[in-house]
Amino acid sequence: MKKPSSTLFVLAALCGAATAEPLLTSWHTEATGRYARIYETLEAEVAGSGAASITWERGRGIQTQPTYVGVHEISVTDTDVYIRSSGLGGHIMGPWFLNAAKTAPFPDFPANQALIYRLPRDPGAVPTSKTLSGLGRIGLFVDGVSMFDSRDAFSYDTSTARNDSPNTPAGVVGDGVWNRDAYVNEGVTFDAGNAHAARFNYHYHANPPALRHALGDSVDYDSATNTYTENFNGGHSPILGWVCDGYPVYGPYGFSNATDPDSPVVRMASGFRMRTITQRRTLPPHAARDQGFTQGLGGADFALPTDSYGPDITAGAGSEYELGHYLEDYEYLGDFGLLRGVDFDLDEHNGRFCVTPEFPGGTYAYFVSIEADGKPRFPYNIGRTYYGTPTGNTVTTIPAGARVLFEGGPEKSLPAGDLTIDTDGDEVTLSWSAVQGGIYLVRSSDDLSNWGAPLPDTDMDGDRLNSTDPLGENDRRFYRADLVDIAPFDDAGFVVDTKVGPGGNNVLLLIVDDWGIDSSPIDNPNAPSNPIMPTLESLAAGGLRFTNAYAQPFCSPTRATLLTGRYAFRHGIGTPAGAQLPSAEFTLPDAFAAAGSPYALASFGKWHLGGGINGPADLGGWPRFSGTLGNVSDYWDWDKTTDGVTTAVTGSYATSVQVDDAVAFITDEGDTPWFCWLAFNAPHSPFHDPDPALLPSGPTGINNRALYEKALEAMDTEIARLLLSVDLSRTNVILIGDNGTPRQTVQAPFGGGNAKGVIYEGGVRVPLVAIGPDVHARGTNDDLVHCADIYSTVLALAGIDARDIVPAGTELDSRNLFPALSGGGSISGPVVVEAFGNTIAAPGRAIRDGDYKLVILDDPNSESDTPVFEFYNVAIDINEQDNLLVDALSAAQEDAYQTLLDYNHALGGNFGNAGAGGGDTGIISIAPDSGAAGSAVTMTVVLNPDVGTRVPPLLNMAGNPISPDVTLDGVGATFVTRPDPNTIEADFILPATPGTYTIQIVFPGPNTPTFTSVNAFEVTP
């Protein structure tokens, strides 16, 4: 990775930060350009800094390449400050243990978080109603490390008499009344800097002594023992961080008189004390206020209902429910007649309005609370509620108009103030703080015009650049250092210009068959079961993952859409059955040829778009193809077609052979730019054991799910082998699934038929990852993107504008994703998925825009089919169980719904044309509408066919009839027949009591509402 730069040592480190605004100038950037380091073990800590690791792996904390510490970019707009950070401390982090004896290692290491945090420059008006602090990041310390509140995410669940977290299986969560204290319960897992990792997110809950030492805040450090000791130096504490409400957090020392900067500096006294209770049946007043209970007057505690009782106090420090186990074991002194400014210093938010060195006119500020020896004291950093409005948050992008004040990490300038010069005899030795891993050329000049050859005696010692120059007769000499190369590093989150240039890089497109987000460890990390896919995780960690990527619900429609950049209704392939790509379609290879591109083209793996053995060439335009014309019946015994010639393959695993062919092509092309499409058959059925040598998790499978995962694991291993043949410095890699996970193997959050083959999320939400020299964005992107967009994106990466190439009159649905890949823009507009054809049991179209999705169940090729409309908020209902049309829509929902209807109408394709009107939901016609008490009645019920309901088809995906349960006022009827989708006949035994009754129809399976009669049934005497 190269980043040419010419840097004179006289340049300043924080160019552009001429303002004294503390939010802009308080960031600790001195360590920028240094690799993050950890002590992995107790033995390494004892051995000292030379034993610290710059790469590591444990749990979710994986650093296969070194990365840089903390803050590496500061940007500003008129309203906000944006901080880019790896989230890793500048001190040596770790080690971490689960027990005081330090024998049980903590399950996770930290890792590069590639975060962008936004903070408001103006906190705004102070709200009267305060907001509770949330879980996760609530602010950022000035070293770029995350700030968490005083909880550890667990709270007591009275119903189960145990502490539970929000992630507890089976839906069991804590009540949120008795919240565990992080320092008390997790302090044993903190490192010397008082921090640990939640999964891979390194963060502080309490006093951060390592940061304070780096800032000169009354903390000494003993490197031999890796310990920090409180040692008050008499000075006011510096700003340690910023909370998301825009207010600073100071260290523990402030002016004794909040408004007098000449008053003595003292340690700030917390406003909280431990309660004197033996049972947890009341809340202190401050906690009652915070949690929305009606507080007692004065110092009266709030008596909880029995279903909110906590566990009784257990005796002894470290006992299971010791006093201090929960935040609610503390009470605020101001509720008991004591006075802030007299008896204590800090309010219930752990702050006060005061003057400080950075704010001589005064500001509200939080203070870290400690005991005299530096031990954290409740409530640690901030109280349970924010003083201001928490408008800051983690974001994925920085606005295009933001002004960059500081760039560090691999873009660090050599700071003039850090230069040291040692003259000894006849030579001079210079030393700068530089970019660790950098390769520099240091030159000298007598006149700033003529620069000599690079000094031969130049080396890097960590992040110190050292160079020695013999002294000559001229005692005046100038030096410059040029950064010419940087060792490979984990650049997720860093914005570094390493682009070779449009059209200069290879493109590798990997397509995975039958792979939805539920079965992707990067998209569904907390799934019931996941394949082990380290290659995939590495690609995602170093590149950009799209969280809202869509394909078609079947493989052939997706392939056709990728190849043409057009939705299924345009190219006509809505099902794999009999799929044949029309010869008139202008494919990706056609576009390369029309542009006169020098790129070599090849396709390997699954074709499945018809045309016989010459289909890939005749219909797809591929000059070179090797793979399968469709699915394989056996991964170890299959037919391989290479450029029109088919041969039988026996005893060779299909996935491995496909990679072999791709490797051979890439190797043969050498320096010629190329575009390679590799479409794996895996993990599509049949579910066969792969080669055990390819598996990280074991040699054999025992059921469909296990075999499915092993096919993915084997493929991941083979992708790693493929990438070894690729020059990743000049190759862009795109990996995408072609449709959802099959029903036999689908898992949460999908299920109940919401899988491959349907237009619901489980059938069309797929993983999509991009990485490469033209992919400057890192982390995740939440834009709605579609497999059709790959068409324009591949061409753009090859230096071709699709709009200039496609034939006149061609309706292109593909959008170029390069703005998102480059980090310079976003992708807007809806995405469309479709399923249709003779073999499709539930044809239709779905359109998503923003959080909302319109589902139209309709056969576009049938004039007699009655369309059914559904409407979901998939942002909160990913498995589409709550059809919003069942009830009245809100104004915002109605606007989104009408917008999607209008878009569908404008798009064309004959989906839903017969269902443009509205109507009541439920059952709208009952015959007869009355009957004698106790009599038997055969009744016909007609369901509403208009917009607002979904009436399931007559047959399910397996071809079996869909029969509903019918009840009258809760009493079951006998289902007789269903002559058409909207009509149901059933036999009833009417109740013996005359009156008005309600009929309900309930269909089996997911995504089906309950139909309730809107005209009641009358039982007569």
List segments where confidence is low: pLDDT < 50 over at least 5 consecutive residues: 1-19, 498-502, 914-921
Radius of gyration from CA coordinates: 33 Å
Which strands sit side by side, in order, in the main sheet? Answer: 39-38-37-36-40-34-41-42-35-43
The pLDDT mean sits at 88
SS element count, helices:
17
State the secondary-structure class: alpha+beta
Number of strands: 58
Task: Write down the overall geometry.
Answer: globular
Sheet-strand content, in percent, reads 25-35%
Q: Could you estimate the helical fraction of the residues in percent?
A: 10-25%
Q: Major β-sheet, in short? A: 10 strands, mixed
Distance from N terminus to C terminus (CA atoms, Å) equals 88 Å
In short:
With 1021 residues, the chain is α+β, with helices and mostly antiparallel strands. Helix content is 14%, strand content 27%.
List the helices and strands and how they pair.
Elements: E1 5-8, H1 22-25, H2 42-47, E2 56-58, E3 61-63, E4 71-76, E5 80-85, E6 115-120, E7 139-141, E8 146-147, E9 151-157, E10 162-164, E11 179-181, H3 182-186, E12 195-198, E13 201-204, H4 209-215, E14 219-222, E15 227-230, E16 239-243, E17 248-250, E18 253-255, E19 265-267, E20 272-274, E21 282-283, H5 285-290, E22 302-303, E23 330-332, E24 351-354, E25 363-367, E26 393-395, E27 403-407, E28 420-424, E29 427-433, E30 438-445, E31 458-461, E32 464-470, E33 478-486, E34 506-512, H6 534-542, E35 544-550, H7 555-564, H8 568-571, H9 588-594, E36 600-606, H10 615-618, E37 625-628, E38 637-642, E39 645-650, H11 654-669, E40 674-679, H12 704-724, E41 731-737, H13 761-764, E42 768-771, E43 779-786, H14 789-797, H15 802-805, H16 818-822, E44 831-835, E45 844-849, E46 852-857, E47 868-873, H17 891-907, E48 923-927, E49 930-932, E50 936-943, E51 965-968, E52 971-972, E53 974-980, E54 983-989, E55 995-997, E56 999-1002, E57 1010-1012, E58 1017-1020
Parallel strand pairs: 8-13, 17-25, 34-40, 34-41, 35-43, 36-37, 36-40, 49-58
Antiparallel strand pairs: 1-33, 2-3, 4-5, 4-27, 5-6, 6-26, 7-8, 7-16, 9-10, 9-11, 12-13, 14-15, 16-17, 18-19, 20-23, 21-22, 24-25, 28-29, 29-32, 30-33, 31-32, 35-42, 37-38, 38-39, 41-42, 44-45, 45-46, 46-47, 48-50, 50-54, 51-52, 51-56, 53-54, 55-58, 56-57
Helix pairs in contact: 11-12
